[in-house]
Every structure is written in C-alpha cells, then in structure tokens.
Amino acid sequence: MIEKHYVLVGSGVAAVHAAKAIRDHDEQAVISIFGAEDALPYNRIKLSKGLFSDLHSEKVLIKQEKWYQKNKIEVHSSRTITTIDPEGKTVATADGQIIAYHKLLLCTGASNRKLSMDGATLRNVANIRDRNDADRIKASLLNGNRICVIGGGVQGIETAWSFVEAGYQVIIVEAASRLMIRQLDQQASTLLAEKIIGFGVNVQLGQGVKRILGTDCVQGVELEDGTFLPCENVVYSIGIVPNTVLAHQAGIQVEMGIVVNENMQTSHADVYAAGDASEFQGIVEGLWGGAIEQGRIAGLNMAGKSVPYQRAVPITLFNAFEMPLFSIGLVDERQCDISLTRTDREPNTSIFIKDGVIAGVISFEGVAASLPYKTAIEQKLKLDGIDPAHNSMEEMMTEMMKRSTI
Ligand SMILES: Cc1cc2nc3c(=O)[nH]c(=O)nc-3n(C[C@H](O)[C@H](O)[C@H](O)COP(=O)(O)OP(=O)(O)OC[C@H]3O[C@@H](n4cnc5c(N)ncnc54)[C@H](O)[C@@H]3O)c2cc1C
After folding, report:
1. 44 alpha carbon – ligand 1 mean position (Å)
2. Position in ligand 1 atom list of the atom nearest CA 10
3. What would the pLDDT profile of 131-179 be if each residue is shown by its tens digit?
4. 363 near 369, Cβ under 8 Å?
5. Separation between Cα atoms, residue 247 and residue 17, nearest integer Å
C-alpha cells in the first residue's frame, strides 16, 4: 500500500510548480499528475504569442521529459479525471480506474467563456485554450482570409498580431471604449490603438458584435449599430470560466472558482486547488504568474509546510504590434489620487499615485525596464518630499529608483 500519494488533477503550469514544491520537501512520496491533454505540460501563453510557431516543439514544454523522470513525477497524459471522492480519498479516471490519494490538488484550469449570439456555432468561429484549438484554427485558414478577433484584451490583441504577422487581414472588435481596459488608461490605450491601426487593422471600439452571419461558414459580422464587416473567420477571446465541475460534484465549495484559503486548501481539508480553477479572496486571477505561485504554495502546504499565499502585484508584459509595454499594479485613474505622464520624450510612461504611494505604472519602455517599477510598487514606496507639481517626471523617477531597495 502506498503511504503517501499526491494526486494532481490537470497538467498545466500550476501542477508543475506544485509537484516541484512537493518533491523539494518530500523525497519519497509518489507524485502523479493526471492531464486530459495528450502532452507534457506546456507553455499555454505561446498559443497566442507564438500561434504560427511550432507549438509541438519541445521548446514549448514547461519542463523536459527528463526533468519529470529525475524528480520521479509521473505524468499521465490523455487521462481525464471524471469524479473525485473526498470521503473515500479516491479519484476515478474516464477509463474507470480508481486511484487513491492522501492529498489531492485540483488544478484543472479554466475554459474560455463561450460566445452566445446568432452564428456562434458556424464553422470557422473559434477560440484558443489548448494546442488542439490552435492547430484547428491554423488548419482552417486560407490565404487571404479576413479574420475578425472579438475581444480587445491582451490575449485577443496578441492573437491578432500573430495573424497580422502571418499576412492575414484583421479586424478587432472590442465592446468597451478602449483596448486592454484592465491594463491601460485612456492615453496608453489610444497610443496602442493608433499603432495597431497603422498595421492596417480595422479597430472597432465601443460596440460589440451583434451576430455572426453565414450559412455554413462565416461570411461576416454585424456590429450593434448594424455595420456589416465581411470576414471568413472569427476568433474570440472574451474571458475565462474556471473548470470547477469536479469540485462542485464532490460537494466542495465553489463560487466563481474553487474557493481556497490562504494555504490553497479547499473546503475539504485534504483537497487543495490552485491556478485558474481556484478563487482566493473572491478573485480568480487567471494569470500565468499567479498559477505558478499558487501551485507552489499549494504544493508546500500539501507537503506539510504552512506557507500562506500572498497575491503579487499584477503585472502584464505585452509585446505585439512592435509596441512593447508593461502595466503594473493599480492603473485606474478613477481609483488613484493623481496620475502623471512623462510625454517630454519617448517612450511614454505614466505613474499612478494613491495615498502618497506609487500604486501603478504603465510604460512603453521594453519589459526589461519593468523591474524597478515593480519593486517600487511592491514596496509601497512613499513619495513624501517629491512634489509632482514641481519635480519633473525624470527627477521623480530618479528619486524613486534611489529609494527602492533593489
Ligand atoms: C492563448 C492564451 C494566452 C495567454 N496569455 C497569457 C499572458 O500573456 N499572460 C498571463 O499571465 N496569462 C496568460 N494566459 C493565461 C495562462 O495561460 C493561465 O493563467 C495558466 O495557464 C493557468 O494555469 P493552470 O495550471 O491553472 O491551468 P491550465 O494551464 O489551464 O491547465 C489546466 C489543465 O488541466 C486539464 N484538465 C482540466 N480538467 C481536467 C480533468 N478533469 N482531468 C484531467 N485534466 C484536466 C486541462 O486540459 C489543462 O491541460 C493565457 C492563456 C491562453 C489560453
């Protein structure tokens, strides 16, 4: 009989970092990852950023096969877990195998929010969550196709850039009044939109797609104001829905995601959750960095360490349409006391101040420049003695860098 068997359901980045944390603190236990996909855990972000690269290459894997072997971590690919029994401490696979665990981690990720409108089920209406989705989209494209990307968030824009680079004509439709509304203020968003339009993309803001038109295949989209935009493909990216069915059916507390405490423990003591599937303090993070850290913290706690999860300052590193930018922390002008923009020279940078502390930054500097800002925000760097009314942005930034301890 196996004394300790850690079972991790879902083979994404959260699982890899949980398995690593467990192995670092428990050399003997059996660690098994069960994943529905037919691959070792891979870098999901590449599906949009590198859509037309070889997504089946080993370079896309989070860890190479030999890493799992060396660490004695068993990855069971193409093995979907269909039920869990928290009382009996077992999980069941789709092919009827019952597996006992002593600690269970649910890191089942999320699914893309589905479009619900006329035409949403037409051929060539697609979204990207896994490698099969990406393969299908690429196979469906013909030379000269026009592609409508619904959703002007990070993922939508990065996908649009992949299409533009591959030579397709692209339309971006965003129902909100600006692109990347969660990461950019009006000014930065306008700069980005101008750049995207400069690449020949038709950017439609402030109204959504009302319906997709076509008989079998897509012929175009109709916007809310009745405008018809011809296209042959629709790719949408309109948010995520955590995969919570297993937990819900097992009577584990679920709200938006699987509810966890600061130890990533669910309402059932021996069942943990991490990554896109989980909800901590009312928030489903849905971010790569958050999934890594939540997986690590879950693993540590499962292995008997008591380490609380602390949500990091959100950071978005973006590089598409030849416009590298980063957005860190609170960048909503309405929630800040003051926002300042250095426009005297390129690249444009804005800082956001709340309660005398630097709370957020948006910058079109390369991502390499993001670290000092991130540190300043994490350290809640006080700005006393720096007067935004009299000090130049350059002076303020120099002073901020001096004060932060990096
Ligand atoms: C195209 C794309 C681009 C993205 N870009 C960014 C970005 O630029 N920055 C960023 O921060 N984040 C980005 N994300 C989000 C990021 O990829 C996720 O936050 C991260 O992958 C979450 O990791 P996870 O391990 O929680 O879940 P996932 O990576 O979703 O992995 C979960 C795995 O569990 C499997 N699974 C589900 N149910 C079962 C079951 N019952 N049995 C077995 N296996 C199961 C799924 O098939 C999946 O393989 C992007 C996501 C996508 C899809």
Report:
1. 6
2. 34
3. 999 999 999 999 999 999 999 999 999 999 999 999 999 999 999 999 9
4. yes
5. 21
Residue for token pair 């949009």: 48
Number of neighbouring beta carbons within 10 Å of residue 355: 10
- CA distances, 34 to each of 23, 243, 396 (Å): 17, 15, 51
Q: Determine the distance separating the centroid of ligand 1 and the alpha carbon of 276, expressed in angstroms.
A: 7
Residue range 246-283, pLDDT digits in tens: 999 999 999 999 999 999 999 999 999 999 999 999 99
Domains in the chain, CATH or no CATH each: 5-111+240-302 (3.50.50.60), 125-236 (3.50.50.60), 315-403 (3.30.390.30)
Q: What is the pTM of this model?
A: 0.93
Query: Among 8, 34, 49, 108, which residue has the most ligand 1 atoms within 8 Å of its CB, making it the best to mutate?
Result: 108
Compute, in angstroms, the gap from residue 39 CA to the centroid of ligand 1: 13
